[in-house]
Amino acid sequence: MLDKVKKTIKRYDLVEVEDRIVVAVSGGPDSIVLLHALYSLREEFNLQLFVAHLNHNFRGIDAQMDAQYVANFCEAMNVICFVKSMDVPKYAKEQGLSSEEAGRVLRYKFFQEVVEKVGANKIAVAHNQNDQAETVLMRLLRGTGIQGLTAIHHGRGQIIRPLLDISRKEIEEYCLLHNLSPRIDETNLEPIYHRNKIRLELIPYIEEHYNPNIIESLAKTAEILKKDNEFIEIVGKDAYKQVMLQAREGCLEFSMEGINKLHIALQSRIFRLATEALVGKLEALEYKHMQSIMELIQKSETGKKILLPMGIIVKTSYNKVIFTTQEQEEETTFYYPLRENGHTKIEEVQGVIITKVIERDNIEAISRDKYIKYFDYDKIKQTLNVRNRKDGDRFWPLGLVGSKKLKDFFIDYKIEREKRNQIPLICDGEEIMWVVGFRISEKYKVTDETNKILSIQYNPPSDVE
Predict the structure, then answer these.
(1) Degrees to nearest 5, angle at CA 90 with 88 and 96
(2) What's the pTM?
């Protein structure tokens, strides 16, 4: 078995020379064999081993005896052992978690504490081939995709699983061969948990009636799917970059057209990568959530949104799909009178308006810059000001035969709803002279009869020092 473990270590690059490894040891057969195997290989790899044991406080005196057993076992091998007791049942109740999930969360939190204390770079856990097969079956029964069926991985981040190719039968034989007497958790022998039922009832039934090698078959299936999944992951990450339009804190924007052109398998990868980028969890979305996103995108209707777990919002805006965790902030309004010659800073959008009155003869050519526009000064009758939109606004865009609602103008230009309130409007009293960055009004254009020109320049936020 030791040669097989060594082969797994080398095949998956689980261990390097001079690694400092925290070994998670419960006291059961799997973890005791893991510690013993790594201890046997310590000189070959020049390893430094440390043991971490967490008392979950599920089994009273038996749990205390487990902790004492692990401490004695480590002392006999001269391995430093860290033992901690935590009230997992209480934590599970407080956090609304199952006992199994709460135990897993606190275990890995404790392992990380030990890693930092001893300066380790790996955490070894004792999942074996049977665990792999049970996980594949559990996920298959629950319903999952190719990624879920890859089940347990040999190594991910700091976590390594050197026994993942070793069966439980081989572990038991190893214990006999090396006179190891691990502790036995009696609850593992009772079909009270879903995994226990699969282990104690379903797998033996399949072995007897369908496939005596079901453990190896399921583990092999997981390995085959891992390779396929790795390829799709690579393609998915490339597609993710291609359809990404913009990324900022708490918000990701993608091309709707780009996503719709992709195969559905790549679309789901993009959604998972987006959720991981937003909330740090790749598996935050279930199949039903994926379907909702796909339906939203396929309709291609602007202004629609759906709410997903962990505060994720997916919404459409023209040809964009936006993933965000930020609720739309309350819209602010602004209004500033403008001098005929001067600088005015708009605090709400951090932009600056520069105005200047000049003689027509001093203008050599009309500016083509979208942020510099000229107006017939003599047509301005009321207070010159800059503000943002309000209900009922109308505007006569240059070149059109009449006015239209400002809202319709924004729609024509596909200006996102969230950005409309940030666009400055240069006004003569209530009359809009210029939708900054877009069109000026037909009413205030410079003509052959114009004598004085009002030059207005807008410096957007990126240009403000």
Answers:
(1) 95
(2) 0.66
